From TrEMBL:
It catalyses: Ca(2+)(in) = Ca(2+)(out). It comes from Blepharisma stoltei. It comes from the Eukaryota. It is a multi-pass membrane protein. It is found in: Mitochondrion inner membrane. This is Calcium uniporter protein C-terminal domain-containing protein. Belongs to the MCU (TC 1.A.77) family. Keywords: Calcium, Calcium channel, Calcium transport, Ion channel, Ion transport, Membrane, Mitochondrion, Mitochondrion inner membrane, Transmembrane, Transmembrane helix, Transport.
Length: 280
């Protein structure tokens, strides 16, 4: 019996739960999601690089990745595939909640679950309590009063600006680093070209340089295949650029103490409070 994999996406007003055999490829999953009325569906690695559509579902089950649907990004962790679609529906859809509250609860449960399962430590009472507090949305119960809404909005907006400025600096530093890596790669390729050219026309002859040229080309090809085998991503200059840049950004974010979860929370909260002010 083929193992089935459950994909659960808590899209606002349109949650999706679909199930596929693990032998299916990513393209089939993406096409099925798109058939439900969505235009942009893509799978990306934890580094933000697009996963090849020919990759089998079974090959992405053992590490986190992202599914992007019409601007919404969902982090999928290995343990989220373990639950059945029936249990998922029964738990969330039988609750007497509005769609907005249900979406909030789903994200909260998934965040706590991912945090506990991905942490390399035993899950005890204190770690569960820490996870519950870590991902608990704050400040929502005090936003009924317009003055309180404006106050919270100002505080969140000021904090968001600082984090966005830091994120922008990190992005620029990561881009400069990645450009440097690519220029270094260009230098290596130029040296290979110069070596083969000089060896052929100046120092030796094509009879001597021909096998070396083949070996150099083969080495470059093996490097590309190895990257694909490890990353399960299409090998292209664009994908390599994204991999290197995102890895550098993650490193710099830790070095500078940028909390990306806090950044995303502030973005959502500022937008929500702005809409709340307009509606009131």
């Amino acid at each position: 019996m083929l193992k089935k994999v459950v994909f659960k996406l808590a899209i606002p007003n349109h949650p999706i739960v679909i199930e596929f055999p693990s032998t299916e490829v990513i393209k089939t999953v993406a096409d099925t999601i798109a058939a439900k009325g969505f235009n942009q569906v893509s799978f990306k690695s934890i580094d933000g690089v697009k996963i090849s559509t020919t990759t089998k579902v079974s090959e992405i089950l053992h590490e986190p990745y992202f599914i992007e649907v019409d601007g919404h990004s969902f982090k999928i962790s290995p343990e989220l595939h373990a639950d059945s679609a029936e249990n998922y529906n029964e738990f969330f859809h039988n609750l007497n909640l509005s769609l907005e509250d249900r979406h909030l609860l789903q994200n909260y449960v998934h965040s706590v679950s991912s945090y506990l399962n991905l942490a390399s430590k035993e899950t005890d009472k204190s770690s569960v309590a820490a996870a519950l507090n870590k991902f608990l949305p704050v400040g929502r119960a005090k936003t009924e009063n317009p003055l309180e809404i404006q106050k919270n909005l100002n505080e969140y907006h000021n904090e968001l600006i600082k984090l966005l400025e830091l994120d922008e600096r990190i992005d620029k530093k990561a881009a400069r680093f990645t450009n440097g890596v690519f220029w270094m790669g260009f230098g290596i390729l130029s040296m290979q070209f110069a070596y083969i050219g000089a060896g052929t026309y100046v120092f030796y002859s094509w009879d001597i340089m021909e096998p070396q040229a083949y070996l150099i080309t083969l080495a470059n090809f093996i490097t590309g295949v190895s990257i694909y085998a490890v990353k399960r991503q299409e090998f292209s200059m664009e994908s390599m650029y994204d991999v290197i840049k995102n890895k550098r950004k993650n490193y710099l974010a830790k070095s500078y103490g940028l909390d990306r979860e806090r950044l995303e929370f502030l973005k959502e909260e500022v937008n929500r409070l702005k809409k709340k002010l307009i509606s009131d």
